[in-house]
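Extended Data, panel c. Modelled sequence:
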Amino acid sequence: MNTLIRKRLLASLLLLAVTGFGLLRPADEGLSKLAASNISTERTTDWKRQDTGVKSSLRDVHFINEQNGWAVGDKGTFISTTTGGSTWQAATSSDFNWWDLKGVFFISREKGWIVGREHFLAILNTLDGGQNLNRQYRGGPGSLDSVFFVNQASGWAVGWQGIVLRTSNGGQSWHLQNVRSNSDLHRIYFADANHGWIVGDQGSVLYTDSGGQKWVSQSPPARQSLRDVHFINEQNGWAVGDKGIILHSADSGKTWVAQSSSVQTDLYGVHFVSQDVGWVVGGNGIILYTKNGGQNWNSQPSGTSSDLFDIHFVKNSGWIVGADGVVLHRPGG
């Protein structure tokens, strides 16, 4: 066989392999669009659905270790677990069935607080892990969206029209702080006993470095409503909100830099487990993941189209809650 015949035969075999056996599919627009996109989808996911037995939207979740956690939501929904979410128990009391519960925080297995609305601003507390709930505070019309404690005594609750409430005695009494904001405030987070942030509508960010004695306004480069904020230390943190906004600060919030999420979906929750590794959750079941501090965000399949409202990690174990009673779990390891 001469050289020319051999070349033609090899070319024919190559063409057959590429086209006949499906190795080349020029019409595969999905793959080409994915390759051209700024956001990539991970082929596998560690997120698995946990059965809660509830159908109401869950708005917030908090764990104190890898076994003990609580979640709250619409229509007085309050569930707890002592097994890392393998089983969830619903609160048996019907006293708060018509409340919308927005935020939950526990400082120990026994002592915790829940905020929301019953037509009025409301704070509940428990001293027995949630078996019994007691009203600690009732304010004017509106809602409280978030609660955070830095120790057994000192805590804050934030919400409607710039309200910030503070307690220094574990909630026995709550006092209004003047933060000079009229925006609805959605989330409060402290990196330590002194450094804290509050985020809300119209790009509002409030900051304290005095343990909440005084709050000052910060100016992020966005006017979208911000829904959540998380700092891994007093310097490095992220805020997320409407229309896919993700902001990062490396100087306690003095300056904020927008990161590209490559989505227009509203984002509701953010949590980082290190300076590099973090997750964001949002509408339509979206989960975004980064392993380089947010320089690049990849999507992870959630297995649901329900809105996801909050995400919380203890060490490397994570939980996500959302609409329709959704709870997703990623085991540590």
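The mean pLDDT is 88. This feature is highlighted in the accompanying rendering.
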